[in-house]
Design goal:
This protein is α+β, with helices and mostly antiparallel strands. It has one domain. The protein contains one helix and three strands. The protein is elongated. It binds zinc ion (ZN). Zinc ion (ZN) binds next to loops.
Length: 68
């Protein structure tokens, strides 16, 4: 675990929608921010950080350049 919770500082008229970078779910009030290796990612929970490193990264490594 390397991330931390970061609440959104947004005004009442801010309609920006933030989605989890791992599972794509809508993040309502605070994001779990962690270093994904190539930059910071915003996830909906620490579980998604685990999911990212146990599933997304290994799969991505199997097909270098294949997802571009
Ligand atoms: Zn998520």
């Amino acid at each position: 675990m390397s991330g931390n919770w970061q609440p959104f500082e947004r005004s009442w008229h801010d309609t920006e929608v933030v989605n989890c970078d791992v599972c794509g779910r809508l993040i309502p009030t605070r994001a779990w921010v962690f270093d994904g290796g190539e930059g910071q990612l915003r996830a909906c929970s620490p579980e998604c950080e685990e999911l990212y490193f146990s599933y997304v990264v290994p799969r991505h490594g199997e097909t270098p350049g294949g997802r571009r």
